[in-house]
Every structure is written in structure tokens, then in C-alpha cells.
Specification:
The chain is of the alpha+beta class. The chain has helices at 6-14, 27-40, 46-66, 113-120; strands at 16-21, 75-81, 86-93, 123-127, 132-139. The longest helix has 21 residues, at 46-66.
């Protein structure tokens, strides 16, 4: 079926984002900028946007630092809006994957990325379909 107006096809484009990022220290900031721009027209509350960008930064940073993928392998970031008022983020890298473990509170330093994803998202997970995919869903409005 051919769309009768540009509006219907544009609305579909506004509800999904897919970008490839080089594995570099710049990937998290580029991901945040892309998701912020995508969220702009999708009715994401300002407080939720701040949380969303933090979680995106954490997951992309993990893909850059911990994936073990060859340096020339891109990271793919996908974002989509659901009809239920949530945004879904997927970060896919070429690494071998991992099994999430709870953060050890006695461990110094980092390790808070997935802890924050777990605390703030509606749901999240990891799968090894075509690399490693870490995904989460976040409500776009405060509860």
C-alpha cells in the first residue's frame, strides 16, 4: 500500500531510530545526541529524558569498554517508541556476550551501569543474537 500523504510515512520514521557508531570514546556522546534528537518529537518528559540519556550512555560505554569486539566493529543503537508510552533502546555490539551479575557493593569504583538500568527501566535484558544485544524499556512519562 502506498501512503496517501508524507505525514503517515514521516510518523513511522519518527517512531524508530537506528544508527551505527564507531567503537570509540565518542560513541556515548554521539548516542546521547541521537537519542535526545529522536526523543524531541516523541513526548518524553524532561526528567525521563535525563534518565534515558544516562542509561543510553551507560549501555553504550559498556559496549565500547567491555564488549571485547574487534576495534573496527561498529556498535548499533536502535530506539523505538511503543504505543504503551515507553521507549525501547537496544545496543548491539560484536562481542561474545556476558551474563549479568548483581553489583558487588563491596567492590570499589564502577559497576553501576547495569545496576542503574535495572533500577530505572520497566524491563531489560541481554541476548546473544548476532553479537551482544543489551536492551531496556523506559516509561516516557513519570509514574
Amino acid at each position: 500500500m502506498i501512503p496517501q500523504s508524507g505525514k503517515s510515512s514521516r510518523a513511522a520514521e519518527d517512531r524508530a531510530l537506528r544508527i551505527n557508531l564507531e567503537q570509540s570514546p565518542h560513541a556515548p556522546s554521539l548516542a546521547r545526541a541521537a537519542v535526545a534528537s529522536f526523543s524531541d518529537g516523541n513526548d518524553v518528559a524532561p526528567a525521563r529524558l535525563a534518565t534515558l540519556l544516562l542509561l543510553v550512555s551507560e549501555v553504550v560505554t559498556n559496549a565500547v569498554i567491555h564488549s571485547g569486539a574487534p576495534c573496527q566493529t561498529n556498535i548499533t543503537l536502535c530506539a523505538s517508541m511503543s504505543d504503551a508510552g515507553a521507549i525501547r533502546i537496544e545496543v548491539i555490539d560484536g562481542g561474545d556476550g556476558f551474563t549479568p551479575v548483581p553489583r558487588d557493593p563491596s567492590s570499589p569504583g564502577g559497576g553501576y551501569g547495569l545496576y542503574l538500568v535495572d533500577r530505572e527501566s520497566l524491563c531489560w535484558g541481554v541476548d546473544r543474537s548476532g553479537g551482544t544485544r543489551v536492551w531496556f524499556e523506559l516509561a516516557t512519562q513519570a509514574a
